[in-house]
Specification:
The complex is a heterodimer. By secondary structure, chain A is of the alpha+beta class. Chain A is built from 7 helices and 10 strands. In chain A, strand 4 and strand 5 form a beta hairpin. Chain B has 2 domains: about 60 residues; about 325 residues, Formate dehydrogenase/DMSO reductase fold. Chain B starts with a helix and ends with a helix. Classes of the chains: A alpha+beta, B mainly alpha.
């Protein structure tokens, strides 16, 4: 025989509502005080710090895919799950155009916003990075990425890297099965540059492998806050677009339209 | 009785076979990785997300009926709410199992609680689902503690009755958590700015309304089947019909919102969204969309559910609730699959490589069947052995045929 359920009195009910209200106020305060402030810091674009960007000249790219190979060798990626790919299109510009597509390192990155555990995040310098030790492999970031830039380790990558040693040697650790990965702008080179006093975009050892290997200088890297950087110079006098700009993601990869 | 007994144990044996096959598939997935599925970088979510969304949606009867019982003061709904809570805990268990095999690193399932990203809809869903699962555990606990062989543990029983006192409080918490995560499951899709077909502010609203309708309907549906098999009455017939009407009304309101969402959202050409909508209404999904989601599982189900009470027909109620539940599953299926097989939006050079084809692999079907089989097994055993579902010893119970004389005109007179 089940015991009768006691009704809540009005007083108890109001106390309960009050407690819920109070705790939500407290929660909001804690959230604003600790979480929002912390995030604002990492989101801000500091004019005194470098604004790393990649500039890709659609008129210059010849589609040789050396950037694809160099990326695969340097970052030790699987042939079926490349970080950097070259797409082709002959409708948009009335001419055949090759479009290399790395990660856009968006300022308002949908992947960073949706990751349930904060495994993908903005570094201090604004680049979008992955914490492979934190990623749970839910793949929501892949659903959210507007550029299809993310790949998943569906199985353990035990492939013999076909681009090693011809196009480079692995410079980063292999990722375990079950996590998402993507182009890093070769941030390990950028970080090493600070210690060795090199300039990313200028010194080869401090520049993303795809930009170093490009034979026609179709993709260059640099600091857009510095007007003398290769990236800034490359953009001068050219018509510049970003992909799917209407989404407001504000990518760090700029495409120069081919001259008509 | 003997015949039905044999039917019951054959059913259990059948479920065990299904679970064994599913178990093998899950072993393969854990051993070799998600590579044995047909998901890909282009279609990172598949059948298991449909299973996840459907089982949570169909479990929504638990919070809806608990709220009706304890917050709207309809204590006569309690027998149905009990069934709903039991269905609910199974639905959420299924969702958690589906998620556990879907994520690449099941060993890191706890990261959601430790590493917070409060911006993420999925984080919110993770927290809410696990918290709500605890609420459901507390709600189900007294039912399980009633089992005869547990009677000797006096403390356990005392604790169970003590918890039961808090049923209204649990109903409040459950309502809050469910409103949050049932909606934010829709928002999980709704915030995806890059996929025009998903990026709709209406998604959370559509999800919660369809879940309330489908969840209540599914609870009634399984109650009717169990009653017929046990030849006993678990829930008074008036309650079943009343709940059916609530479900039907919510379903029709949902369809109304869905109609305007589809109409206003596709008024002009919206890159990506229009293509996906065309595929939904006129492409490969058109048959299941119009047939199951809109006509059978939507309009017809809504009308049948409302009409069942006036006609006093269990047949109409059984069909209506089944169709409404199926409609919810098809809605989640279409939403998930279309998201990855359709163009994103403008930016032509990028469009084609990002459009993927996805058909679930046998491993995905088998694992899904295994999880569903496990839930069905737990449900069958629970309905048979839990004292809470013993049912009343009412005279022989039969499905009442729909009286021919009742016409649509009398409905309004009611």
């Amino acid at each position: 025989m089940a015991q009768e359920t006691r009704e809540l009195t009005r007083r108890e009910f109001l106390t309960l509502i009050g407690a819920l209200g109070m705790s939500s106020v407290a929660g909001t305060w804690i959230y604003n005080a600790f979480v929002v402030e912390k995030e604002r810091d990492t989101h801000a674009v500091d004019p005194d710090k470098p604004y790393w960007a990649m500039v890709i000249d659609l008129g210059a790219c010849i589609g040789c895919e050396r950037c694809v190979h160099a990326c695969q060798a340097t970052n030790d990626t699987n042939s079926d799950h490349l970080w950097n790919i070259v797409l082709e299109d002959n409708e948009t510009f009335n001419q055949h155009v090759f479009l290399p597509r790395p990660c856009m390192h968006c300022e308002h990155a949908p992947c960073v916003e949706v990751c349930p555990v904060g495994a993908t995040y903005h570094r201090d310098d604004g680049l979008v990075a992955m914490d492979y030790d934190r990623c749970i492999g839910c793949r929501y970031c892949m659903v959210a990425c507007p550029y299809g830039a993310r790949v998943f380790n569906w199985e353990k990558n035990d492939e013999q890297n076909p681009q090693v040693p011809r196009w480079g040697t692995p410079e980063v650790e292999p990722r375990p099965r079950g996590v998402v990965e993507k182009c890093t702008f070769c941030s390990h080179r950028i970080d090493a540059a600070r210690e060795r006093n090199l300039t990313p975009g200028v010194d080869r050892a401090a520049t993303p492998a795809c930009c170093v290997v490009c034979p026609v200088e179709a993709r260059v890297f640099g600091d857009l806050h510095n007007p003398e950087s290769p990236a800034s110079k490359k953009m001068q006098g050219r018509e510049v677009i970003t992909l799917r700009s209407h989404l407001g993601t504000n990518p760090r990869v700029y495409y120069l339209l081919p001259n008509a | 009785m003997f015949k039905k007994d044999r039917l019951f144990w054959s059913w259990i044996a059948f479920l065990l076979v299904v679970i064994a096959i599913g178990g093998y598939a899950i072993f393969l997935i854990m051993y070799k990785g998600l590579v044995v599925t047909n998901m890909s970088d282009g279609a990172p979510w598949g059948l298991w997300i449909v299973l996840d969304l459907s089982s949570i949606g169909l479990a929504a009867g638990a919070f809806s009926l608990s709220a009706i019982t304890y917050l709207l003061g309809r204590r006569d709904f309690r027998p149905l709410a009990k069934v709903a809570v039991f269905v609910g805990i199974l639905g959420y268990s299924g969702a958690l199992m589906a998620l556990a095999m879907d994520i690449g690193r099941p060993d890191r399932f706890w990261h959601g609680w430790v590493y917070w990203n409060v911006h993420s809809m999925l984080w919110e869903v993770t927290m809410c689902i696990t918290l709500y699962f605890s609420v459901l555990l507390l709600e189900v606990f007294p039912m399980v503690a009633d089992l005869p062989f547990l009677a000797r543990f006096k403390r356990l029983n005392a604790f169970a009755h003590w918890i039961h006192r808090f049923a209204p409080v649990l109903a409040v918490i459950g309502l809050g958590l469910s409103l949050l995560h049932q909606s934010s499951l829709g928002a999980t899709y709704g915030v995806v700015v890059g996929r025009a077909f998903l990026f709709r502010a209406t998604m959370p609203i559509l999800f919660i309304f369809s879940a309330i309708a489908g969840g209540i309907a599914f609870t009634i549906h399984v109650t009717l089947i169990v009653q017929w098999l046990k030849n006993r009455t678990l829930v008074p017939e008036k309650i079943l019909f009343d709940a059916g009407q609530i479900s039907g009304a919510v379903l029709l309101i949902y369809l109304y919102m869905r109609f305007w969402d589809a109409t206003a959202g596709n008024y002009g050409y919206v890159p990506g969204r229009t293509e996906a909508f065309t595929t939904l209404t006129g492409g490969v999904y058109s048959l299941t969309f119009w047939g199951w989601e809109i006509i059978l599982g939507g309009i017809l189900a809504g009308i049948l559910l409302i009409r069942a009470k006036f006609a006093q027909s269990y047949s109409l109620l059984l069909i209506g609730t089944g169709l409404a539940a199926a409609g919810l599953i098809f809605n989640r299926l279409h939403t998930t699959l279309l998201a990855f097989t359709e163009p994103l939006s403008e930016s032509p050079p990028l469009m084609d490589p990002l459009v993927t084809h996805y058909t679930p692999a046998w491993t995905e079907w088998a694992a899904t069947a295994g999880v569903v089989g496990l839930l069905a097994l737990a449900f069958s055993l629970g309905m048979r052995f839990l004292p809470a579902f013993r049912g009343s010893e009412e005279p022989e119970y039969e499905i009442i045929q729909e009286p021919q004389s009742v016409t649509l005109v009398t409905e309004t007179a009611h």
